[in-house]
Amino acid sequence: MKLKKIFFILSFFFLIPLFVSAQMTVTDQIIPSNLFSGQPISKLLNQLFYIGLVFAVMLALIMIIRGGVEYMTIDAITSKERGKQRIKAALGGLLLAFSAILILNTISPGLTSLRIEFVTPERISSVQIETDIQVAISQYTGMSEQQYQEFLATGKIPTNISPTAQKILAEAYNMVGFETGTIPGTEAGKRACAAAVNKLFEAATGQQIGGGFSTEQMNEVLKQDSRFQYVAGGTSAAQPGDIIISPTNGSNVGHVGIVANNGAVISNHSKRDNRPGDKSEVRQNFTLSSWNNYYGNRKNLPVYIYRPL
Question: Measured by CB atoms within 10 angstroms of the end CB, which terminus of the chain is less buried, N or C?
């Protein structure tokens, strides 16, 4: 029984690293090699592979020496036989391991080398994201100065908010009906809320908020950017032209929009596949109350209000 254990242990220290190596090589074919770049874990696995091989050889040599000593120094027949069996088990383990190496190397030399590296995927820069937004919805040009003045004359824009908020609100109303389903990377407009707000903000002020397509990243910009003021009172203190945002948390998808008149919210509407004729577009699709109920209560996401200065 003990000799079988020795054989198993020697085989284990040789074959497990090889199976791991082979698995890593297969994974390397599935995952693009340029997805990863030199992290310490790859070096550690490589070192463990060779340490396992060295340990197995050393253990085999120790068993061979022990068996040889038993065979030469003990006269009892049973001891001599046990020594021979110990040597045979050690040699068998080495033979099995080296046979496995030879077979795997014959099939593919890559199977006996550890060639996987773990790394974080390269982050897309905010400049690239915002460039993508520019290209994706460049067909929305915003209001001309004349159109803006004519819109002001309608009385839809409150006079007790800042000039920046007035322009943002005007662009939000002007953007209602704009189709977002053609924006790449947004699942046919289902994740286009941040892109739409970025675009209308750029049309109103000359520059985007930032954060690209991500409400989480946009919220980080809003918290730190001096162009915006956090409204501590939440939706009860919101006024037209404010930005309302519930940032995404993991798989719990959030949303962002612009507060309009009478407690309404203008934001991207995601197409419902089960509704014939439905489409992704900017709509007046929430109220402050319904936003609180859906994102705050049902989805358990925070609801933030930021005021453009």
Answer: N
pTM of the model: 0.57
Three-state helix/strand/coil letters over the chain: CHHHHHHHHHHHHHHHHHHHHHHHHHHHHHCCHHHCCCCHHHHHHHHHHHHHHHHHHHHHHHHHHHHHHHHHHCCCHHHHHHHHHHHHHHHHHHHHHHHHHHHHHHHCHHHHCCCCCCCCCCCCCHHHHHHHHHHHCCCCCCCCHHHHHHHHCCCCCCCCCCHHHHHHHHHHHHHCCCECCCCCCCCCCCCCHHHHHHHHHHHHHCCCCCCCCCHHHHHHHHHHCCCEEECCCHHHHCCCCCEEEECCECCECCEEEEECHHHEEEEEECCCCCCCCCCCEEEEEEEHHHHHHHHHHHCCCCCEEEEEC
Instruction: Say which residues have a Cβ less than 8 Å from residue 91's Cβ, sequence separation at least 6.
Output: 60, 64
* 235 pLDDT higher than 70: yes
* Highest-pLDDT range among 93-97, 150-154, 223-227: 223-227
Q: How many CA atoms lie within 13 A of 1 on its CB side?
A: 0
Alpha-carbon gap, residue 195 to 32, rounded angstroms? 29
Residue 34 corresponds to which tokens in the numbers above?
A: 């340029």
The amino acid at 130: E
Write down the pLDDT at residue 187. 66
Q: Residue 68 and residue 91: Cα distance in Å, rounded?
A: 12
Residue type, 175: M
Higher pLDDT, 6 or 156: 156
Q: What domains lie within the chain, and their CATH numbers? A: 2-112 (no CATH), 126-308 (3.90.1720.10)
Q: What is the pLDDT of residues 14-26, one digit of tens each?
A: 444 444 444 433 3
